[in-house]
Amino acid sequence: MKKPFITKEQAEEIAKSYPTPFHIYDEKGIRENMRRVREAFAWNPGFCEYFAVKALPNPAILQILMEEGAGFDCSSLTELMLAHAVGDGKERIMFSSNETPAEEYRMAAEFGAVINLDDITHIDYLKKVNGSLPKTLSLRYNPGGVFQMSNGIMDNPGDAKYGLTKEQLIEGYRILKENGVEHFGLHAFLASNTVTNEYYPMLAGQLFALAVEVQEQTGVAIDFINLSGGVGIAYRPDQEGNDIMAIGEGVKREFERILVPAGLGDTAVYAEMGRFMTGPYGALVTRAIHEKHIYKEYIGVDACAVNLMRPAMYGAYHHITVLGREDAPCDHTYDVVGSLCENNDKFAIDRQLPEISIGDLIYIHDTGAHGSAMGYNYNGKLKCAELLLAPDGSVTQIRRAQTPADYFSTLDGQPVYEKLLALAEGR
Ligand SMILES: *Cc1c(COP(=O)(O)O)cnc(C)c1O
Known about the structure:
Elements: H1 8-17, E1 22-26, H2 27-40, E2 48-52, H3 59-67, E3 71-74, H4 77-87, E4 93-96, H5 102-110, E5 114-117, H6 121-130, E6 136-140, E7 147-148, E8 154-155, H7 166-178, E9 183-187, H8 199-218, E10 224-226, H9 244-259, E11 268-271, H10 275-278, E12 282-293, E13 297-301, H11 310-314, E14 320-322, E15 332-337, E16 346-353, E17 361-365, E18 385-389, E19 395-399, H12 404-408, H13 417-424
Parallel strand pairs: 1-18, 2-3, 2-11, 3-4, 4-5, 5-6, 6-9, 9-10, 10-11, 13-15
Antiparallel strand pairs: 1-12, 7-8, 12-13, 12-17, 14-17, 15-16, 18-19
Helix pairs in contact: 2-9, 3-4, 5-6, 8-9
The structure holds pyridoxal-5'-phosphate (PLP).
């Protein structure tokens, strides 16, 4: 049973100040989860979780995570700016980008970020862009082939654009060493949204063995191994979520089996989780505004794929609770749909739900990662507000909704801009 973290009464109260749709995030859930992550890896003194900023790039959330000891994993100019503004220079940044423009490498270096290179040619590129190589550099590994786990989950690194081959990696560390780099990292992201405690330990086993091989072949001792993201969450009610304590134990087992005997027991373990850190602690709250009976039963809501793109983009499942009907039988079959002129704008298809009436509040679960962040402005639809539920039950707005004036703002300088602005402002 997936349970909303707010009740219908709370949601109605919130909607008086902040009209639907809105994303709301549970601060308590985020803090407690971050503490569990640190506890799970407390056996590794160098451990750091670099929160993947792209999952939820809101400064209030970044602030909370930093207070709980997180660093930030960035992959773009604006993410670097966000991390640096929130951290005020005290932040730890991992810059795991790809196809990186020169100005982003420059900014990453300026902010003291650890740069994680996605390709062997980027060594020269970075050197050219920044004049020299930093003392610390990390390389991203792609083993090719398929990555398979015992429960059948797999991903396809061989088809992924990221990372260096093994031969390039060995060569890469040699080049870094010759260029005076002193601290070395190894990174890989081989499977996404894995709902199994096996993924991180398996990945760690591969990377730890590779670190031993790198040392044997090049004399380079890897200082940190970055397991990156990919730890998933249980979007479906019948899934069992990951147990981060078991995951931490599994990584420790591999560490003691492979790195410690090789004399690499000082290696730090890093993570760059996004989804696992905030996904379950966010929800999109939207209101049923239309019902339609044609060949199927439709409920039209005031949110659309602009607010949450995952179902439209990947057919992703997001659980839905009709607030106030938590205990009612799911004896109706609905498509719950948004207003885009795109037939994939469906939050749920053929979903068994309680009867929905116009005006009901619909709670879409697990939008705390890759939710609001992935939004766009198709059909000229505007992105909704983001709210934060504090541990004391109070709610603050941490990002206002977009306005028509925001939407038109990049037309400044165009002939109709003043007219548009007047319309947007109701003048
Ligand atoms: C997206 C991404 C992450 C976070 O992935 P999650 O699946 O959200 O944990 C971490 N590192 C890199 C380089 C990424 O691109």
